[in-house]
Design goal:
273 residues; 10% strand; alpha+beta; five-stranded antiparallel beta sheet
């Protein structure tokens, strides 16, 4: 569940089956915070609204009931016609509107429909809504890219530690001895890329949470992912640790020069600041 602020009005958004739904109850608050249900019902009884909802459902919902839709369309515009979101959903098996109860209760609409409702409320408000919604999706895209790179480094580190277990750890070692070997190998990468061990970083960053890799930028995370793969290969080839460190440091210097000069990487870095 996410939220955006549009002209001083907080609007909730949630994702269902890879589709975004926007709270039109929150949108209605922009017009009248005390009568949101009435505003939505007034919009729903409009013939143009019924036709729009029906066409949207026919395009996107194989389970939509067209006969019930025709019944609502015939009544639309009559003074006696009243329609709620729940009635529309239950009678037509619609998926474009969702009625939620509880903490985040209200009427939600697929973004296509929510933008149409916002236009009925205020054309200006609709434009601001679209702008803020697009900003939210762009932020989500950037965060997803960051998480993928961070998780890639973690996955590759598992490959790296498995190579250590298979090739460097003799049998019958205690857990403490194994942990020390893992720490030593982790610091091979830290030294190659950051020029310091994990302990040296902690000693120079007292009071800061996390570790040296949590503060790495995108270029460093990409390089770290590559170094982990290479170190796993070097370990399997029985290359001595000192020689591996020398090679990895040379590779890190070369790769960081390329990564920091890449315009695409720079744009990602700027987007995550």
């Amino acid at each position: 569940m996410g939220k955006i602020n549009v002209k001083g009005t907080e609007i909730a958004i949630f994702n269902r089956k890879e589709e975004d739904y926007i709270c039109i109850t929150d949108i209605a608050r922009y017009k009248d915070s005390q009568r949101t249900d009435y505003i939505i019902q007034n919009w729903l009884r409009n013939r143009n609204t019924i036709e729009f909802l029906g066409i949207w459902e026919q395009l996107n919902n194989p389970g939509f009931k067209p006969i019930e839709f025709d019944g609502f369309k015939k009544q639309a515009g009559l003074n006696s016609f009243i329609l709620t979101a729940k009635q529309w959903i239950e009678k037509t098996n619609a998926i474009g509107l969702i009625s939620k109860s509880g903490r985040y209760g209200g009427t939600y609409a697929h973004k296509d429909i929510a933008f149409e409702f916002a236009s009925w409320i205020s054309v200006e408000f609709k434009l601001y809504l679209i702008k803020e919604f697009q900003r939210l999706k762009e932020d989500e895209r950037k965060q997803l890219g960051w998480d993928i790179r961070r998780n890639l480094a973690k996955i590759n580190y598992r490959i790296h530690t498995d190579a250590i277990k298979d090739n460097l750890i003799p049998p019958e070692l205690t857990s403490r001895q194994i942990d020390l070997i893992y720490a030593s190998e982790a610091d091979v990468l830290n030294m190659a890329l950051f020029g310091m061990t994990a302990k040296e970083w902690r000693d120079s960053h007292l009071g800061e949470k996390g570790n040296i890799r949590d503060y790495a930028n995108i270029s460093q995370l990409v390089c770290l992912s590559n170094l982990e793969n290479l170190n796993s290969l070097f370990i399997q080839e029985k290359t001595p640790q000192a020689e591996r460190l020398r090679k990895l440091n040379q590779i890190a210097i070369q790769q960081m020069k390329l990564l920091t000069s890449d315009s695409g990487i720079r744009q990602l870095e700027e987007g995550n600041k």
